[in-house]
Amino acid sequence: MDNAVTLIQAYLRLNGYFTVTEFPIVEAIKHGGHRTVTDIDVLAFRFPSAGRLITQKGKGAQKDRLIGRIDSALGILDDGADMIIGEVKEGRAQINHSARDPAVLRAALTRFGCCHGDEDRDGHGDGVDALVESLIRKGQGTTEDGHRVRIVAFGSVLPETDPGYHTISLGQVIAYAKAYLNDHWEVFRVAELKDPALGFLATMIKSEAESTVAP
Length: 215
Known about the structure:
The chain is built from six helices and eight strands, in the order αβββββααβββααα. By secondary structure, it is an alpha/beta fold. It has one domain. The strands form two sheets. Strands 1, 2, 5, 6, 7 and 8 form a six-stranded mixed β-sheet that branches. The protein has a two-stranded antiparallel sheet with strand order 3-4. α2 crosses α3 and α4 packs across α6. The radius of gyration is 20 Å and the shape is globular.
């Protein structure tokens, strides 16, 4: 997996999202063949009120502790369900043309398990087509169930003008992840971190902490 994508996956997971990375989009071509059109760097879904719970052994639920806070840079204004179709760049944060292709967006929405029909449940709307159009024009939309869907670009350099979709800098991602680990180091220092990005950051934090201890 690409290093930047690995970092974004870790960041989104810290913020309570479930993720799918490097999701291939395959289309049918002439004579019964198929080809890969593109892949989506990251698809992510966050349920309302998602968080990381630290339980108390042998205690009731009232003793459990919820840690962490969602990063304000994600631009979540309420606690509703949030779906992200994300593009990750090491350079400028921007969305490739293919990521705004209606067919690609339809495939992404179907992977989320929603919006795969041509009409809404009452048979009156445009269903997936209306949501795809909203994503292309405004960078966000809402499903029939009220779930927010957004296009988000991650990169080292943010655009100077509004590109029509949400952007987050890799610098902010790293700063948030390091602060999260530092704030809850008593938890993560004993956790066996399988995520390579979090594992690397945890090693940095541990090394910095040990280097300040006098021999």
